[in-house]
Amino acid sequence: MALLIVVTAVVLATDRLDRSAPEPLGPAPGAWTVVPHTGLSAWVDVYDWTVELGGPHPSVTVDDVDAMADAGVQTMYIQTAHTRSTTAGVMEPERLARLIQRAHNNRMHVVAWYLPTLEDVDADLRRLTESAALEVGGLAVDIESTAIVDVAERNRRLLDLSTRLRAALGPDKVIAAITPSAVHVQVVNPSYWPAFPWAALADLYDVLLPMSYWTIRTGELHDGEAYTSGNLERIRASAQDPGIPIIPVGGLAEDASLDDLAGMVTAIDEHASPGGGLYDWASSTPEQWAALAPLRGLQWPVPATVDGHGS
């Protein structure tokens, strides 16, 4: 049955989806572009690869990076810093450098990511700029912390951090915002983050990466295709920017069925999104990556759509 579902996932792909499973595109030279955010991506957090927060035997090692490449993953998103760490900047730089280099050896892109709490914007900015200085092809800011309870102040700090980050990196480097699910903030729990600043973020970032985790929903929302479609539709309308790439992150992997991953692929195709990812690598299976294989090779701008924002 699992094999049948995987085959079905591939068949669902339209002509826009590349069935030929091309070689990974490899690190792009020069300035950061949209390219590392397109295609098929896997996510790794500090609880998987560091000793400080993950324990003496990390669950993600350089061997896992090889396995990602074998599974067709084109980009590794790796969390590079954490507010719980005793390190003020990038965590365990030597171990991190080995993972990044192994990804490059496998012709994979690497994008660094970090979750700011906004409690100390200066500290958040330092961790982000240090992450950007690594041998990576992009940076993504994980926007989900509600440590600042007052929503107006939270939004003010978020936009202050984002504006300062853009100024520090310059106008030509493509940066991504990892956002909450629009279905979450607009339908499931509007009190979680009222007046989420979609349009302002679309002005400051070049790519939006919504956490489209249908696996934590119940009822009709526990559906890979419907939930992914709902997020892409709502964010496109809320961002008020027809040219910004919106690339969903599916998950959580340990609870994602192959049927739902096939549905996610269908939704990505129907909404002309240039890629997708799965959170996270450590809890995923080879069968899941096979189901997501049609996402490999997707590009931005998508043929017959508006030109990309920031590409």
Describe this structure in words.
The protein is an alpha/beta fold and 311 residues long. It has one domain (32-295): Glycosidases (TIM Barrel), CATH 3.20.20. Helices cover 39% and strands 13% of the residues. The protein has twelve helices and eight strands. It has helices at 2-11, 46-49, 51-54, 62-70, 93-105, 121-132, 151-169, 182-188, 198-204, 224-239, 258-270, 286-291, and strands at residues 39-44, 75-79, 109-114, 139-142, 175-179, 207-212, 249-251, 275-279. Strands 1-2-3-4-5-6-7-8 form an eight-stranded parallel barrel, surrounded by four helices. Helix 6 (121-132) runs parallel beside helix 7. The protein starts with a helix and ends in a 20-residue tail after the last helix. Residues 1-22 and 305-311 have low confidence and may be disordered.
Superfamily (CATH H level) name? Glycosidases
The strand line-up of the biggest sheet is 1-2-3-4-5-6-7-8
Largest sheet: 8 strands, parallel, barrel
Domain count: the total is: 1
Number of strands: 8
N-C termini distance: 41 Å
Quickly count the helices. 12
Shape descriptor reads globular
The CATH class is: Alpha Beta
Helix content: 25-40%
Low-confidence stretches: 1-22, 305-311
User: What is the helix/strand order?
Assistant: HEHHHEHEHEHEHHEHEHEH
What is the C-alpha radius of gyration, as a whole number of Å?
18 Å
Mean pLDDT, to the nearest integer, reads: 90
Structural class: alpha/beta
